[in-house]
Amino acid sequence: MQFVLASESARRVDLLRMVGYDFVGRKSGFPEVSLSDPAETAVQNARGKALAVAEGPGASAGTVVLAADTVVYVPGSGEVLGQAKSEGDVRRMLGLLEGREHEVYSGVAVVGGDGDGVSVESVRTRVRMRGLSEPELLAYARLGEGVGKAGGYAIQGTAALFVEGIEGDYTNVVGLPLSTTSRMLEEHGVRWY
Ligand SMILES: Cc1cn([C@H]2C[C@H](O)[C@@H](COP(=O)(O)OP(=O)(O)OP(=O)(O)O)O2)c(=O)[nH]c1=O
């Protein structure tokens, strides 16, 4: 059975390879939406990415397609933070996150294979970030690491220095909740072993 990851994210590719899955990557080209609810945003984007590839050229009937989307949310803020697009975005987003707790939501979608229709789930991890001084905020923004990352930081990089603790799946923060993903893949006939 062919297993396709509908993603260009190096983090998702690395996570899936790390645990032993055999797959090919494909770009979805899906234009991401941003809604007021973080879980709904992540799920709708993951579903859209998976279906765009499953219904696109090159996917046969038996192909299993996996896609994900990650967003960051400060409870009560009403603003869902997607990818930081610039250093300025990183500075602004980290300013919202430093010194408090936030939530990271990844939506996961799997379509095709043995399963019926599209399976979608969202996973939440709570992250507590320490306070950051203005020089530290600017130094991190200048690094560039946070550009292209949801919420403007990478827990797997230098921003590990800022994270005091998490509650939930670490891999969910990096972009793909592996435990949930492997259960969903299994339901569609894809195993890591
Ligand atoms: C919070 C956080 C996010 N991220 C990343 C994971 C995602 O790649 C990115 C959020 O962007 P997404 O829009 O979820 O995905 P993407 O555009 O990078 O990739 P795809 O092709 O699959 O659509 O933020 C980290 O790498 N580390 C972190 O600590």
| Number of helices, counting only DSSP H or I runs of 4 residues or more | 6
The fold-level CATH name is Maf protein
Strand content: 15-25%
Question: SSE string, helix = H, strand = E?
Answer: EHEHEEHEEHEHH
Distance between the termini: 14 Å
Low-confidence parts lasting 5 or more residues at pLDDT below 50? none
Estimate percent helicity.
25-40%
CATH class: Alpha Beta
The helix/strand class is: alpha/beta
- What is the averaged pLDDT score? 96
Global geometry:
elongated
**Could you tell me the number of beta strands?**
7
Q: Which molecules other than protein and nucleic acid are bound?
A: thymidine-5'-triphosphate
Rg, nearest Å: 17 Å
Task: Estimate nothing, just give the exact number of structural domains.
Answer: 1
Major pleated sheet: 7 strands, mixed
Site (Important for substrate specificity): 11, 70, 156
Catalytic activity: UTP + H2O = UMP + diphosphate + H(+); dTTP + H2O = dTMP + diphosphate + H(+)
Organism: Rubrobacter marinus
Keywords: Cytoplasm, Hydrolase, Nucleotide metabolism
Please, could you describe this protein's structure?
- It is an enzyme of class 3 (hydrolase).
- Its cofactor is a divalent metal cation.
- Keywords: Cytoplasm, Hydrolase, Nucleotide metabolism.
- The protein has 193 residues and is an alpha/beta fold.
- It has one domain: Maf protein (Alpha-Beta Complex), CATH 3.90.950.10.
- It is built from 6 helices and 7 strands, in the order βαβαββαββαβαα.
- The chain has helices at 10-18, 38-54, 87-97, 134-143, 170-174, 178-187, and strands at 3-5, 24-25, 64-73, 80-81, 101-111, 118-129, 163-167.
- Strands 1, 2, 3, 4, 5, 6 and 7 form a 7-stranded mixed sheet that branches.
- 42% of the residues are buried.
- The site of thymidine-5'-triphosphate has 23 residues, from helix 1, strand 3 and helix 5.
- Thymidine-5'-triphosphate (TTP) binds at residues 7-9, 11-12, 32, 49, 68-70, 72, 83, 104, 149-151, 153-156, 173-175.
